[in-house]
Amino acid sequence: MNAAVVTPRRRIAIPLVLAGITLVAYFSALNRNQPLIWAVAAVLSASLVIGFAWPHWLAGRLTVRRSGPAKAAEGKVINLSVTVENRGWLPRFMVEVVDRLPFVGAGEGRAPGGVSLGLIGYIPGLGRRDFEVSLVCEKRGLYQLGPVGLSTSFPLGLAEARRAGKEGSSTLVVYPEIFPIAAWPLQGAPSLIHRGGHFLPSGSGSAEFRGLREYRRGDNPRHVHWPTSARLSQLMVKEYEPLASPCLYLVLDLAADANVGRGKHATLEYAVKITSSLARLACDNGMPVRLAGQGKQALDLGTGQGEAHFGEMLERLAIVDADGKTPYFRVLDKVAGDCLAGETVVTFLAEPSERVLYTLQSLALLRARGAHLLAVCFDRPSFLPSGGGVSVTESALFAGLLDLGAQVVPVRRGDDLMRLFNR
């Protein structure tokens, strides 16, 4: 069965009109005393009684349950299982299953409302009906589902009876979509080289030989200097002065006025998708990665590696929202205070033009601390319904980023992110 969005119905007009016609029929019958008019009035009265009473009788002995996954990925299809049971002896007809599923329509920015999961034409006495509904998780987020219920206005559509399900509400976490990135020239922090053979991308630099020292537990065996070890009869290893290794610092802008667009075509949604994909690249290649941002609550996930760390990042990114008041340059100033020399700091720029100069100053501070900059610049007007305003890519910020030697990736609404990040 396919789900459909339930729209509010104006059910009061038809009963009022029918009640008015019934009163007119009775008034005419009293004045004319004709059997036919009495019969018409009786039929109209019976229609009113049946139209209001029968829907409540139909829903009275029915129960409904809905079950489904607690976690899903953005853009993927999930299956919801629905069971409707008739605990009465008599059959029921034309019963609709209605649920509150906020993720339906979230991609377009629609307000959450009731969703019709299906219309059941016939349920036998003491019987049940089972069916599945396939729905697309349009947008990442944490959603409160339900409660699921039943609705019927059979047979005349004069009144609608509703009955809530027994299961109550449940939650669904939709994780952000991840697109593959084959390689990206990320650069890293000097203090992390030679700690387990991190992946070194192109342009990240190398290390200089500093001297020899005695072997210590945990040293990389590949750095043993065998000629000297044989001459001194003890293991000696080469010591290096590190220049670079991969380390990634992802910094989201969670200020409310920096997020433009609706639904899945908002700048924050693009930023979260890019952040998740870069984090996937880092964890797949053993790169240390961390995450920061400042909304109503601080987003602060320390440096880590591996699947467990990536899973924790996805949990945070699934529920993060642009609900903060802290300007982005304040967040970048804080990042500059603890970033490592040589670390790649990924920034997402979609803020109002009046804060451009402050942001440039914070980015210059990051460069002075030895950080490399990867700036994702959103073309703000393309995300606005009117398409008006000053484009970030045409502003002083864009020129300032180039002066700072930053890697700049301009992003417009509707861009193919996988193509942008796999050039």
Structural class: alpha/beta
Query: What characteristic shape results from the CA principal axes?
Result: elongated
Count of helical stretches: 10
Top-tier CATH class of the largest domain: Mainly Beta
How many domains make up the 3D coordinates?
3
Give the helix proportion (percent range).
Answer: 25-40%
What is the fold named in CATH at topology level of the largest domain? Immunoglobulin-like
Radius of gyration: 32 Å
Q: Mean pLDDT across all residues, rounded?
A: 84
Looking at CATH, the homologous superfamily of the largest domain is: Immunoglobulins
Question: Unreliable segments (pLDDT under 50, ≥5 consecutive)?
Answer: 5-10, 193-206
Distance between the termini: 42 Å
Proportion in β-strands: 25-35%
CATH architecture of the largest domain: Sandwich
The order of strands across the largest sheet is 18-17-14-19-20-21
- How many individual β-strands? 21
Main β-sheet: number of strands, strand sense, barrel status? 6 strands, mixed
Pfam family, one: DUF58
Transmembrane segments: 12-30, 36-57
Domain DUF58: 212-325
Keywords: Membrane, Transmembrane, Transmembrane helix
